[in-house]
Amino acid sequence: MNRSEPFVITVSREIGSGGRSVAQMLAARLQVRFSDKYLVNSLVEKFHLSVPEIERIKGEKKNWLAGLIDMVAPIPNSGAFIGFEQRLGEDWNRRVSSEDVFKAECEILRELASEGSCVVAGRTGFYVLRDFPNRLDVFIRAPRADRVQHVMRKQGIDAEQAGEIIDSVDESRENYVKQYTGRSRYDLRNYDLVINMDGITEEEAVDLILQYIR
Fold first, then answer.
1. What would the DSSP string read from start to end of 63-93?
2. Where are the domains of the chain?
3. Which of 15, 26, 16, 6 is nearest to 138 (CA)?
4. Are 4 and 136 in contact (CB under 8 A)?
5. What is the chain's alpha carbon radius of gyration, rounded to the nearest angstrom?
6. What pTM was estimated for this model as a whole?
7. 3-state secondary structure string, 28-68?
8. 8-46+110-213: what fold?
9. Per-residue pLDDT tens for 91-129?
């Protein structure tokens, strides 16, 4: 990766690994845009959904967009809604395809990459931006015990609850990636650099990435 030209660094990570913080710190050190919050906010604006709703729907194995349509424009009960609301529901059911949200993510990521250097946290960036010429793909992982402790601290919950969240999010993200990329996010061939956070801090992980680039 050549830092003298526009570049993209994608950071995929396990929940509780500290990978999002690593990506954010890396963007700050490189003085480039960090995409995660921008991307999610753009999706929320586009589909008028909360972040938890988007994440929950994306993780379903079945056609999760059906749930999205139900929330954005539910089919009205008999006689409950007429006029504009009914036309809106009919319009969404007619026009929205099963890949709309994924396509929106792709569009936003590619737009970000074309505008200048950036760090992308998650969002299948390793796949969506695979044809971008000046790119580095990173995966951040950590031992399960460390991940549990991290989630416990962040959310103020016990170990059992943290473990359940980790299992649920891992499955959800893997389902989403497989459905729209045909790959497993755990296939290390997707990445140029894999960092195990066992025994290192987030700042040290950023240093490792910068050393790798140099």
1. -THHHHHHHHSPPPPTTT--THHHHHHHHHH
2. 8-46+110-213
3. 26
4. no
5. 19
6. 0.74
7. HHHCCEECHHHHHHHHHHHHCCCHHHHHHHHCCCCCCHHHH
8. Rossmann fold (3.40.50)
9. 444 444 446 667 777 777 887 788 788 899 987 899 999
